[in-house]
Design goal:
The protein is of the alpha+beta class. The chain is 21% helix and 36% strand.
Length: 204
């Protein structure tokens, strides 16, 4: 019998950190189901779902992974998925994939405005990438969105894009069929985009 856990791991990003983490999971008989990883400023952040033999309590998992990944100063937290959320048995509502890009001069409260407006339309943010070209310079944000099929996007698109009406900021909402890898400044981060982009456009 197995038990499913949700793990969050933060560690120094150096060569060998992922083999250490995944090797520790393998040593415990863990079977990874999902994983998401990103890094910034020399720190790796990883969230994963894995099934472990039910003889291992969460503290055993934490201690083992932390011990193996000690050279990378790994901090590990483990919890059971919410018991009331049996997502495996509940079919997700039909959605379409869109990308919202924001580029230019940042303004205070911009992310709060955007995320609040998306939440009001029951739009899920599946992924987010944000970066600055230089300290204090223009910002680039890319939101990967799961939009309910019945959503009326015309007023939403107009409202979002109006946020970019001032000089130096562009906001654009595009269906995935119009958004290709050439639009992404950091293709490794938004790996899912690769599945929708023509092969030749991923060359650089």
């Amino acid at each position: 019998m197995t038990r499913r856990y949700l793990l969050s791991i933060v560690a120094n990003k150096r060569i060998g950190v992922l083999p250490a983490i995944t090797g520790a999971i393998h040593e415990l008989g863990g079977d990874m189901q999902e994983a998401s990883q990103t890094s910034m400023h020399g720190v790796l952040s990883m969230v994963l779902v894995a099934d472990f033999p039910d003889r291992f309590e969460s503290q055993v998992i934490i201690d083992h992974i932390s011990g193996v990944a000690r050279p990378f100063e790994a901090v590990v937290t483990v919890r059971l998925p919410n018991s009331g959320d049996d997502l495996d048995l509940r079919p997700p509502p039909p959605t379409e994939r869109f990308f919202l890009t924001v580029h230019g001069d940042d303004t205070p409260g911009l992310i709060r405005q955007i995320t609040s407006r998306l939440a009001a339309e029951s739009i899920e943010i599946a992924d987010l990438y944000a970066s600055r070209e230089d300290v204090g310079g223009p910002v680039m944000m890319i939101f990967e969105l799961a939009v309910p099929e019945q959503a009326d996007l015309a007023p939403l698109r107009g409202e979002l894009e109006s946020m970019g009406n001032h000089d130096g900021l562009t906001v654009e909402l595009q269906h995935e069929s119009l958004f290709t890898i050439k639009d992404v400044p950091h293709p490794v981060r938004l790996a899912n985009v690769m599945r929708t982009a023509p092969l030749e456009s991923s060359k650089h």
